[in-house]
C-alpha cells in the first residue's frame, strides 16, 4: 500500500531525517567540488565512442555479405543507440554536464536519437517524475498511464490486458515515451496555438527520425537498402527492449515504494531525499553493465542527485549505502533478472482486482446489469 507518513514508515524522528538530509547534502557538495577535466573527458570520450560505433556498425551492415556480419552490425548499432539514449542523451538532458558550459553537451541543446523531442521529455521526466517520484496521481511515470502498479490505484476491467500492454510497451518503448511526453506538454499548454506548436514539434521530430532510419540511410545503401532497413528496425527494437527493462527495474520491483499526495504537504528537502530513496531500486552491475544502462543501475543515487554526472554515481553509491546502514533506511538492490521478474510479477498480479477472480465475476455481472438497465 502507498505510504502516507514517510517518517513513521522509516521509523525516524524529524531530527534523524534532518541529519540524514544534511549528510546527503554533504555528498552532493563533495562531488560538485571535485568535478573537473576528468569528468569532462569522460563524456567526450563516450560521445566519440558512441558515434564511432554507430558509423562502424552501419558500414558493417551495408558492406557485409554474410548473415553473421549483418547480425553483428545490427547488434552493434543497437548498442550504439542504447549508449546514445541512456548514458549520453538521458544524462545530458538532466543537466549533468551543464557545468562544462559546452553548447553541444548541454541540456538545452541536445537532441537524442528517439522519436520523442527531448524538450518535451525534459519537463515530463525531469520535473513531473523526478520531483514527484512515485506519488499516486501526480507522477505520470507511475505505470505510464496504462499499467496499474499499486493496489491504491482503482482496478478497472481494462487492467486485465495489462500484461499484453506491458509487452507492447516494451516493443515500442520510444513511441510510448514520445506520446507520454506529448500528452504532458499538450495538457499544460494554455492556448490553442501552444497546443498546435506541441503537435508540430512532435510531428517534426517523428518525421526526421523516421526519415533518417527508414528512408535516407537505406537509400544510401543503394541495392542493399533492405539490409539497412531491416538492421535499423532490429536495432530500434533491441534498444526499446533494453531501455524498458532498465527503467522498469529501477522503479517497480519489490521495495520501490509508492506514496500518497499527502506526503507532499510541506515536504522538506530531507523528506524529499527520503522519498526518493524509498521509491527507487538499484540492480547489481559491473562496469560494462553499468555503462550499458546509462549508470541507471544506480537508480537510487540518480533520484537523489539527478543532475550529478553519471560516471560519479558508483562512488556516490558507496557513501549512500553506508548512510542507509547508519540510519536504518532500506536500500533496495538485487540482480537485474531478479528485479525484473519481481516487476513482471507485480504487473501480472495487479492485472486482477484485489479480490481475485471473484472480483472479475462481480464486475462482469455489474456490467451486464448496467447494459440491461
Topology:
Layout: H1 6-10, H2 14-34, H3 37-63, H4 67-93, H5 118-131, H6 162-171, H7 173-188, H8 192-220, H9 225-251, H10 269-278, E1 282-283, H11 287-292, H12 299-304, H13 313-327, E2 333-334, H14 336-349, H15 357-372
Helix pairs in contact: 2-10, 2-13, 3-4, 4-9, 5-7, 7-8, 8-9, 9-14
Structural class: mainly alpha
The span between the termini is 35 Å
Biggest β-sheet strands, sense, barrel? 2 strands, parallel
Tally of alpha and pi helices: 15
Fraction in helix: 55-70%
Write structural notes for this entry.
The chain has 373 residues and is mainly α. It has a domain at 114-252 and 335-373. The chain has helices at 6-10, 14-34, 37-63, 67-93, 118-131, 162-171, 173-188, 192-220, 225-251, 269-278, 287-292, 299-304, 313-327, 336-349, 357-372, and strands at 282-283, 333-334. A two-stranded parallel ribbon has the order 1-2. α2 (14-34) packs antiparallel against α13 (313-327). It holds the Pfam family FA_desaturase. Residues 69-333 form the Fatty acid desaturase domain. It comes from Mycobacterium aquaticum. GO terms for molecular function: oxidoreductase activity, acting on paired donors, with oxidation of a pair of donors resulting in the reduction of molecular oxygen to two molecules of water.
Amino acid at each position: 500500500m502507498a505510504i502516507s507518513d514517510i517518517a513513521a514508515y522509516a521509523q525516524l524522528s524529524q531530527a534523524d531525517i534532518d541529519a540524514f538530509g544534511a549528510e546527503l547534502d554533504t555528498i552532493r557538495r563533495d562531488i560538485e567540488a571535485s568535478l573537473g577535466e576528468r569528468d569532462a573527458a569522460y563524456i567526450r570520450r563516450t560521445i566519440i565512442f558512441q558515434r564511432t560505433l554507430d558509423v562502424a556498425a552501419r558500414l558493417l551492415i551495408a558492406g557485409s555479405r554474410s548473415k553473421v556480419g549483418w547480425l553483428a552490425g545490427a547488434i552493434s548499432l543497437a548498442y550504439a543507440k542504447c549508449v546514445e539514449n541512456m548514458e549520453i542523451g538521458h544524462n545530458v538532458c538532466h543537466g549533468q554536464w551543464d557545468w562544462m558550459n559546452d553548447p553541444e553537451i548541454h541540456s538545452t541543446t541536445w537532441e537524442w536519437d528517439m522519436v520523442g523531442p527531448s524538450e518535451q521529455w525534459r519537463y515530463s521526466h525531469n520535473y513531473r517524475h523526478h520531483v514527484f517520484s512515485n506519488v499516486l496521481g501526480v507522477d505520470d511515470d507511475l505505470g505510464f498511464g496504462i499499467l496499474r502498479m499499486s493496489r491504491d490505484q482503482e482496478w478497472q476491467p481494462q487492467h486485465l490486458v495489462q500484461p499484453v500492454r506491458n509487452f507492447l510497451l516494451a516493443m515500442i518503448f520510444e513511441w510510448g515515451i514520445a506520446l507520454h511526453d506529448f500528452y504532458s506538454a499538450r495538457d499544460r499548454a494554455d492556448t490553442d496555438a501552444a497546443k498546435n506548436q506541441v503537435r508540430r514539434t512532435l510531428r517534426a521530430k517523428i518525421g526526421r527520425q523516421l526519415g533518417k532510419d527508414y528512408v535516407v540511410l537505406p537509400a544510401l545503401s543503394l541495392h542493399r537498402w533492405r539490409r539497412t532497413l531491416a538492421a535499423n528496425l532490429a536495432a530500434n527494437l533491441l534498444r526499446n527492449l533494453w531501455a524498458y527493462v532498465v527503467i522498469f527495474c529501477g522503479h517497480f520491483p519489490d521495495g520501490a515504494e509508492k506514496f500518497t499526495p499527502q506526503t507532499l504537504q510541506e515536504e522538506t528537502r530531507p523528506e524529499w531525499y527520503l522519498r526518493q530513496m524509498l521509491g527507487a531500486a538499484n540492480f547489481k552491475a559491473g562496469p560494462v553493465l553499468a555503462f550499458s544502462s546509462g549508470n541507471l543501475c544506480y537508480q537510487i543515487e540518480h533520484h537523489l542527485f539527478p543532475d550529478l554526472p553519471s560516471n560519479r554515481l558508483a562512488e556516490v553509491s558507496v557513501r549512500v549505502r553506508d548512510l542507509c546502514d547508519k540510519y536504518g533506511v532500506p536500500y533496495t538492490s538485487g540482480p537485474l533478472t531478479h528485479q525484473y521478474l519481481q516487476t513482471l510479477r507485480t504487473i501480472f498480479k495487479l492485472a486482477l482486482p484485489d479480490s481475485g477472480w471473484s472480483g472479475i465475476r462481480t464486475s462482469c455481472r455489474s456490467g451486464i446489469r448496467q447494459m440491461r438497465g
